[in-house]
Amino acid sequence: MIIFEGDYVRLTNESHWLRVDEIIFVDADPANNKLRLSDDYVVPAPIEKYIEEYRSENEQMEAYAEEVREQEERAAPTADKWEENYYASDAIHHAEANQY
C-alpha cells in the first residue's frame, strides 16, 4: 500500500474519509511508518491493518463532486414534476375562482 500526504483513507469499521496530513517516518523500513490524519488521529504501524480503503486527493474530489451532483439531482424538480405542480396549482386556482 503506497499512500502519500494529501491522500484520503477510510479506516476499518468507519464510514467517513480522512485526509493524510503527515507521514511519520520512524525508520528506514516503510512498514514502520505511521500516518497523522486530518482529525489528528495517528494510525499506528502497520497501517495496512487499520486502513480499509484509500484514494488519491483527485479521486476523493471526484467522489465529493459526484455526491454533490446526486444531491442536486434529488433536490431539483424534474420537468414532469414542475408541469404536474403547475397544472395542479392552476386547477386549484380555477376551482377557487368558480366558487365566487
Distance between the termini: 75 Å
The assembly state of the depicted protein chains is single chain
Radius of gyration: 25 Å
Number of strands: 5
Shape: rod-shaped
Which strand order do you get reading across the main beta sheet? 4-3-2-1-5
Could you spell the SSE succession in H and E letters? EEEEEHH
The proportion of strand residues reads 15-25%
Number of helices: 2
Summary, kept brief:
A hairpin with a 6-residue loop joins β1 and β2 (18-24).
Kindly describe this structure.
The chain is of the alpha+beta class. The protein contains 2 helices and 5 strands, in the order E-E-E-E-E-H-H. It has a 5-stranded antiparallel beta sheet.
Notable traits:
single chain, 100 residues, 5-stranded antiparallel beta sheet, 2 helices, 5 strands, 22% strand
Q: How are the secondary structure elements laid out?
A:
Layout: E1 8-11, E2 18-24, E3 34-37, E4 42-43, E5 51-55, H1 57-75, H2 79-98
Antiparallel strand pairs: 1-2, 1-5, 2-3, 3-4
